[in-house]
Amino acid sequence: MLIIVRHGRTGANAAGLLQGRVDNELDEVGVLQANQIAAALSRPDRRPDRIISSPLLRAHQTAQATAELTGLDISVDERWAELDYGEWDELPIAEIRASDWQRWRADTGFAPPGGESLAQLNSRVNAACDELTAVAADRNVAVFTHVSPIKSAVRWALGTADEISWQLHVSQAQITSIGFRGPVPRLSTFNDTSHLST
Fold first, then answer.
1. Domains and CATH numbers, the chain
2. pLDDT digit string (tens) for 130-139?
């Protein structure tokens, strides 16, 4: 099973800011959410055999709670980093020009100034998911990451077009699970927040 976890809340999340490669830490709510995720992943059917994290602090801090509970080490994989928003990082969506936002939604090759396109994100997440298929078919691999890579992994599992990312909502500290029938991925759960009390 590929268990894909969105990190706990940060101050930028609480303020409604775009948060790409800026390296924010969890806020108090985020730390609580990380502990609730760890408790959820201690269940026998979800207990990870391997933990992978984005290199960004908020994801790594979230993974650390599960690592401490399970005794597992954390492997860092750059491919699970959040989309690079470039000059849009830490801006509220309202401050992005409407024409730029519309172009970004319409063109998967469009990148924010100094940032990364959806097509580039999907390429790196595809490679990361492909690499984990064999091990996740037999064991639980927990990946601690961000909104955009989670959407990309779901797109990979379903075999849909890149644009589906704009039609998915990924909640804070959610858990998505992708199982496998042989090498074929199957979306088992999406956007599960039943473990959260906040």
1. 2-192 (3.40.50.1240)
2. 999 999 999 9
